[in-house]
Sequence to fold (1117 residues):
Amino acid sequence: MKMRDLNIRNGVVYDPLNRIDGERMDIYVRGGRIVETPVKDAEEINASHMVVMPGGVDIHSHIAGTKVNVGRLMRPEDHFKDVLPRTGIRRAGVGHSVPTTYVTGYRYVEMGYTTVFEPASPPLKTRHTHEELDETPIVDKGCFPLMGNNWFIMDYIRENKYEECRDYVAWLLEAVKGYAVKIVNPGGVEAWAWGKYITHLDEPVPRFEVTPREIIRWLCRINLELKNPHPIHVHTNNMAKPGNYETTIETMDSVKDMASNTDGKPIIHVTHVQFTGRSGTSWVNVGSGAPEIADYLNKNRHAEIDVGQIVFGDTTTMTADGSFQFLLHLLSGNKWANSDVEVETGAGVVPFRYRRGNYVNAVQWGIGLELALLVKDPWRVHMTTDHPNGGPFTEYPKVISWLMSKKSRKRLLGKINSTARRRLTLGDIDREYSLYEVAMVTRAAQARSLGLTWKGHLGPGADADIAIYNLNPKQVDPSKDYLKVRKAFKKAAYTIKDGVIVCKDGEIVETPLGRTYWVKPPLPEESLESLASNISGRFKEYYTVEMDNYVIDEGYLANPQAVAPAR
Amino acid sequence: MLIRGVVCTVCGCCCDDLNVEVVDGRVERVENACSLALSKFKHHSSDRILKPLMRKGNGFKEAPYHEAIREAARLLVDSNYPLLWGWCLTSCEAVKLGLELAELVGGVIDNNSSVCHGPGLIGVQDIGISGCSLGEVKNRADLILYWGSNPVNAHPRHMARYTAFAKGRFEASRGDRKLIVVDVRRTETAKLADEFYQIEPNSDYELLTALRCAVNGEEMELNTVAGLPVERVEELADSLISCRFGVLFYGLGLTMTYGKSRNLDAALSLVRDLNRKTKFLIMPMRGHFNVTGSNEVFTWVTGYPFGVDFSKGYPEYNPGITTISDVLRREECDAALIVASDPIAHLPSSLADTLKKIPMITVDPHRTPTTEASRIVIPSAIVGLESTGTVYRMDGVPLECKKILNPPPGVKTDFEVMSDLLAEVKGLLR
Amino acid sequence: MVGECLVDLNGRFKLVTGRTLIQGMGKERGKFTEEYLKEISICELDPEDMKLLSIVEGELIIVKTEFGEAKLVAKASTRAPHRGVIFIPYGPVASLLTSPHTDGSGMPSLKGIEAEVFKG
Fold:
């Protein structure tokens, strides 16, 4: 049994969920959990002059499952650039924008991350997602089943059968061992299955006659009633279209009236808003809609977002939004993969390079940062790159440095397309994130949003998932020395998982298998039986697998952890 | 006892609606099985290997399991450049271990798609792929095209379960769909088609390119293409453009003929081009029940779907160099581990002869020309009958197989054999 | 043009190998069964080509490619017309005739190979 007792001495601690902001203090670990008092015979870590934070929590990163693997298959050229030989501890693999599963786990841990969620898994193929997650070492993880284009749900909405719909959603989460309700381009991916598009929230889905607005509202209401730990996680319609910031605001606004039932926690999470935060009417005048969205978020507390920041360079786009991916293929001329899934959803993959000199890409870069800097409440704006859509997750340290240093932003602003530079308001924004705020947007806020109350903080009882960074806040001014910030966050001095040191000075030293979290909403036995018999007829008619084979046993997962809903 | 929802482990259809009646440890009856499946379920006990075997002179002697494992491990560890081959007729769980083993011993690991649908995967690397799951075809397709594929022979329930004869939500019957076949012979599938286009062998690339011309509105200055009059080519292109939801299923007629992966470049490009006019998808008719699974596992562990060389300690991929046919032609391997495959029977004979010259360890349920030529043979349980395991259907849908029978006494699963082999190798390398 | 005679008097053909139902069932049953061994030793020809070369149903013929030669049993194809094309099911006999060259693709040539047919 690996040593799970630690006394971490003298670190400079940032623990926003417990309101600790750069206090010099010890952190004690016994049996893999944080405890209040020093532990006898524990391993001692001298964290003097180093930043101590909870382990990173990534709420939205495409790391496992069918579309990710199509991405890997399609991009041997991505792999050749970045190879990892095996060591005594580490498996071999390849990296860059579509890393293999082992490399994914290692590289997250090297940056001090300890929990990652795959945000888009088609239920019919979620067994594949779990197979890949089970081969993603060290980090705790989970996946979000896609529901926004689901035939059963759309039929229930049209037939106005709320209770059955609610029971179906609960059943589905358990059946595929998913963590949250994911909605991608609601109704739009079903339209794309016919090669068509949906362009506004009240446009009826072909042959289903329900609207995106209805899908979002029904699933929001159901998600609240089931008391699931995470709000509905929404990738809006009109991805990438100029002017789509209006869709983002409309989407957030579409469920505002349901917010009064909650205790102030957001009831809708809108994802990678950089891609859906554009103003303008064409590719010529497309601009940043970040100020408008930030304004909305500053006035409305029921919604939260993650950024989806882009990083210049070569990467791979992949989403469940098949229609968007085809449009990107047409725009860029790059190779394109499509993967529609019966009854449920779709997906697409297109390699892409973001260029500083390209007007639109430069605007995109600005939008993400403007969102992060203009939204005042860091609890509700999570830092992501929508890996790998905006850029590989290994670029997070770069993004952190942009948030913390106006100087670093100015430097890059000077190199981007000059028209974009003129039109963005980014250059006028002085705000710089503190380490406390960085801790919020890279760990505390995500953990809270996911309802993982035992993660993302360093209070007693929390899982001992800890990151120690070689960064002395007394000596380093992140605003000026942003390169030091990047270096520190790139390779953690220590990454600790459940009290075990798994990474030291950026080198993996242990590779335990993390947990796969899934949500078990309460469904009374009678409802379960009634649901099964209700759907079995249509299941057989629509699908090409048996219902019993569709359901994934908990025992299939290597290290499952059911989470009971509690808000 | 009737076991419902059994996943069939023969072809890439992976039908999961088989109901199997098991009485006294034998299969009495199977519902919903095609002739290939029936053959497997009824005759699984013929020609079985029951005990581990080690070469003695021209024959074999039975050996204790652990001795066979030890010898096998030693062979692999001592070799310079071992070949690990097969992986498509076994579970994903076994494939994962095979990859770890290849990494440890620094060998080249390749799977059956290298001599089968590999060119299609190379095509995806060049072009991408407009794909979908089979239920999309069942529910939506009004045009189905089989190209160089004869499902009546190799995927008997394909058309009834997923395509022309299936009942879907939006396309309810055969009459709602158009069935087209392109092939060099009038196959059984061609006889069922609404339109059959017979082409000259090795001319698929020309025809696909001509279709792309027609689809993209370009002039063709030829009278015939691939043995067809150009009017027929234009007629085919019109059918493709005017459908609502078309699907091209292709078989080895494209991957194995002149042009190889270039044929797939052309087919994948044609389907991509068609998406500017209508909704069109393409899917390979994978021949075995877990070729897709082995590609998936290879890809998420190494980044590449087949032909992975670990001799430098990290995965390297170069079809034409790191693939079995080329590795054997260069006579570079000095040992081989073969899992659930029969390369001696199926590889071109000059390559099979090379393989016979090196010590082979074969893990297989049945006696085959490959086991007959091996130095060590370890019997294994049949996935989907005698062992559980995850497999992937031709459209990437993962399914878990059931264990409905016990294997012969003492016979282990591929997963168990690979686990033991891996542990032994790790011990030797320490 | 398909349908025209592609066969010259020296009996040059294109060889296509592939799956058949019986070969598929046979391989599940066992690769040393009579049924399997029989099926994989068959060579299907267009009946018109058989007439041209004076080959009768069931006769032993020799098929030769650049890579090897094999004795097979001639059978009239039910999938004619396919003048100039012969078909042999996958298996150890077909493997004697197929090409190990992958043209840099990894894929050996198992279909569309130049072949000669002689009376056996």
